[in-house]
């Protein structure tokens, strides 16, 4: 017999030792750096935890992370329905997450996926000798936050949150008083460093700014953790080549998906 309930962070943190970070990077972030803003809905079979759907409230859309425990049977429609009612989201809401191939097929089998999933690569830095010794970016200060937020929004940074800018180091390159490139992190501590929010203004692309900015951010990230990651759409071939050229290697192939909370049960 299966059942559902909200799980406290104190309880769910017990999962950490059993989580493969590289395979479950997003869920790992929900248990660590996003824990203060996340809610966890658990599915249990005979009192044993089998799956978790975690909700994060700071993005511009309902953001989730899905985690299944081992190879347990999952009753996804029931988990989705309970989550919708518990978090009080509209059935028509379009949500976002990142899934591996197996979990994508599970969501598809329940008719939850909207649109075409986008292949997404998790990349880990492996070769420091390929990084540039660039020092052209400056640390962004609090007085510049509004400009940086506008710049990132204009670059369609959908996964950016203001708290990242406030809590993690961001670097910027200026031409006069205007930003032409900005970069920072989605996660930044000894548990998890992931570069993100890297944007170059359209009319300055092709000049190597992103390459130098990524190098500086990677150097900075290595001071917090030996393991530094980033994510990129697989079809963004120029960016993938840039990251490979800086010593990054693909560790996981995943899918960015949109899904609904509408179920047939």
From TrEMBL:
InterPro entries linked = Acyl_CoA_acyltransferase, GNAT_dom
**Residues of the N-acetyltransferase domain:** 118-265
Tell me the protein's name.
Answer: FR47-like protein
Record the organism: Paenibacillus pabuli
